[in-house]
Design brief:
- With 255 residues, the chain is an alpha+beta fold.
- 20% of the residues lie in helices and 26% in strands.
- Strands 2-3-4-1-5 form a five-stranded antiparallel β-sheet, with helices on one face.
- A hairpin with an 8-residue loop joins strand 7 (125-126) and strand 8 (135-140).
- The two termini are 33 Å apart.
């Protein structure tokens, strides 16, 4: 598994891999007997007890997205959360509220950076949401920025991400099932009751979708990217044209 500090040799010659828009929040046991995975397992939407990385979220009690992130295994029983840079401090503070008397240190780790390549990269992990989005790994926090390329590639695949696009939206309406961001087999977590009820009733009335900016509905718009001519809208499923959706989303709505 890729980890901080390991050098990588690209299968392609892509040199810009650093995602400056991403940061790492480290959860580390201050006591060797402390179970960091068990702590996080009771808070987030996906199963962090098994193989990592996984895509997950921390929800409100109502089941609405507050933070989305990737969970990586770290050294010495720690976990590393690959999250938005602008929300990293807020995420650390929110997790600290749930820590109570648990002997877990929660803080940003600015020595580790998140790297991405659209093409196969030695030692990297495939993005757990969709294979088409490429590969991620954690390494030293340095290098040429790839954020613009990552954003364009992500939106071209119709993937919403981050608080600007997902914030305050019910987790299943963010396409969490199709993007492997939720487990219905694990135990309880914050927001689980409403999330499980929606899944059981198959009642997901709206979806986040990436649309051409000129077709975006201002009242339903979550984010706009004029430089790419795209926007992220929160639309009723009944109003979606399947022909305009990416394959992964169209298949999910057909199930």
């Amino acid at each position: 598994m890729p980890c901080a500090g390991n050098s990588k040799e690209s299968v392609t010659d892509m040199t810009a891999t650093m995602l400056e828009s991403r940061a790492i929040v480290r959860l580390a046991p201050s006591d060797p007997a402390e179970d960091v995975r068990g702590f996080l397992q009771g808070l987030v939407t996906n199963d962090v007890a098994g193989a990592l990385p996984v895509y997950a979220a921390l929800l409100s009690a109502q089941g609405k997205a507050m933070f989305d992130f990737f969970v990586w295994e770290g050294p010495d029983g720690s976990l590393l959360l690959d999250c938005e840079t602008e929300s990293a401090d807020d995420l650390a503070k929110r997790l600290s509220l749930y820590r109570l008397r648990r002997k877990i240190d929660i803080a940003r780790d600015e020595t580790i950076g998140v790297h991405w390549s659209a093409d196969l990269y030695a030692g990297a992990a495939a993005d757990p949401r969709l294979p088409q989005i490429g590969y991620r790994w954690l390494a030293a926090s340095k290098g040429e920025a790839a954020d613009a390329a990552y954003l364009a590639h992500r939106l071209s695949l119709g993937l919403p991400e981050g608080r600007a696009e997902l914030g305050d939206i019910l987790w299943l309406e963010t396409n969490a099932v199709e993007l492997n961001g939720v487990s219905f087999e694990k135990g309880c977590y914050i927001g689980q009751e409403n999330t499980a009820r929606m899944n059981w009733r198959q009642k997901v009335n709206r979806r986040l979708v990436v649309v051409p900016l000129e077709a975006s509905q201002e009242k339903r718009r979550k984010a706009a990217y004029p430089e790419l001519g795209l926007a992220v809208d929160h639309l009723r499923v009944a109003d979606l044209d399947p022909a305009t959706l990416p394959d992964w989303q169209r298949a999910g709505l057909a199930d």
